[in-house]
Amino acid sequence: MKKVRVKVAAVSDETSSIKTFRLERADGSVFAPAPAGAHIDIVGPTEVTRQYSLCNAPDEGSYLVAVKLEPESRGGSAALHGEVAVGTELEVSEPRNLLNVATDADRHVLVAAGIGITPMISIAYDLHRSNTDFELHYFARSHAEAAFTELLEQRCGFTESVRFHFGIPRGEQGAIMTALAQDAGAGVHVYTCGPVGFMEKVHDAFAPVIGEAQFHIEHFEAEAIDASHDTAFEVELDTGEVFEIPADRSIVDVLQENGIEVDTSCKEGICGTCVMGVLEGVPEHRDNCLSTSEKAANDQMATCVSRTCGKRLLLELF
């Protein structure tokens, strides 16, 4: 995937563990509007690539990302926090979107926790500017640990649509989700981002009410995969080339080793960069980038982690 050289124009402390970085094109031009809810890959100072949601209004001409310092970081958030300053140049990918805003929804409910607020901000900007009905629920341990509180309380323009939930114990969050879901009608679409356990609570409350197709989720954490029963299978490309995929190798790895150009980034089934079309066969989806409805259609798959339910797949290079 094409990379763009950027310059860090501003760095701010959002909380004690979250920094924001304003990124501008190094050549002085402006970025085209990005889709609401989109994210980019950032190649950090240690050459580690990580995905970060854009949290600016889609048409600002520059990118704003928020990075939480993770305790176990070995080159991702630690390098950005410790080595990146105003004037630093980095490389970023073009925006990609896993949280597409439904155009046929009557109302939108955005539910975020912690650093998961980042994609919801750009979605909220977009919905506000189009005069679309929405509400944003933000969960955090405390006001001090919540990012973008000043923006959301005073400067965003959609303050009346924001609901804060600070200091709610994990055991009580589910009841709040259930109460919120009771007001969700047939035309409501729900979007969520945050820790895995939190998003599961949001899903369990809303999905039975609105249906899986109207529930939108974004993961930036890979889930553990049990590969103990994996077997070999065959992949044919629409070009006619055929490859054997061993039990212990991914489709992406085999294709790249044989000179087939497949864009990749996370290689964990999160970012969606390696998605290919499925022309024949039934994929065994193991990713966190495709939506429930996209997986049900079985016409595309994340080739870095997913495999097949049968013996053979015919794939189309996007």
From TrEMBL:
Gene3D superfamilies on file: 3.10.20.30, Nucleotide-binding domain of ferredoxin-NADP reductase (FNR) module (3.40.50.80), Translation factors (2.40.30.10)
Domain FAD-binding FR-type positions: 1-102
Protein origin, superkingdom: Bacteria
EC class (word): oxidoreductase
Domain 2Fe-2S ferredoxin-type: from-to ranges: 233-318
Claim: Ribonucleoprotein is one of the keywords in the record: no
UniProt entry tagged with the keyword Oxidoreductase: yes
EC number(s) per entry: 1.14.13.82
Gene Ontology MF term list: 2 iron, 2 sulfur cluster binding; metal ion binding; methyltransferase activity; vanillate monooxygenase activity
GO BP, sorted A to Z: methylation
Cofactors required: FAD
Protein name per Swiss-Prot or TrEMBL: Vanillate O-demethylase ferredoxin subunit
Keywords for this protein: 2Fe-2S, Flavoprotein, Iron, Iron-sulfur, Metal-binding, Methyltransferase, Oxidoreductase, Transferase
